[in-house]
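Annotated sample (chain length 125).
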Amino acid sequence: MDEKWRCPKFVLFSMVENVFSHNVSKCRNFIQISVSVTKEGEDLIFTVSNTGLGVSQGRLEELHYLLEHPRERDTMKSENNGRSIFNISDRLKLFYGEGYHFTIESEENVLTTCSVRIHKHFIDF
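Output written by the structure step:
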């Protein structure tokens, strides 16, 4: 199997694992996790959504900023430092360079969705 195909599998695993590490011990309610892989035009999109605790708007803005400015990540001192999200993004960058797009969207206590979009040029469909 092509080396480029292995990364999304591990990325999906990490995205699902992140749901458990941030929700299972803290949530008392049922959590629904959805995993999908879809083809849109010439892109492949990997999506993991969950109905867990979610991410506050302020924290989401901070994560987006730190995804775009990796050198500033070391300034974070909190227990929930986003390291797994950053590791996912960093692995994707190693495999695909600028040929991917990683997003995280969340509405606190409603839904969190992480998606990875990879262009066809970087993967054989």
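Annotation: Strands lie at 33-40, 43-50, 100-107, 111-119.
Annotation: DSSP finds three helices and four strands in the chain.
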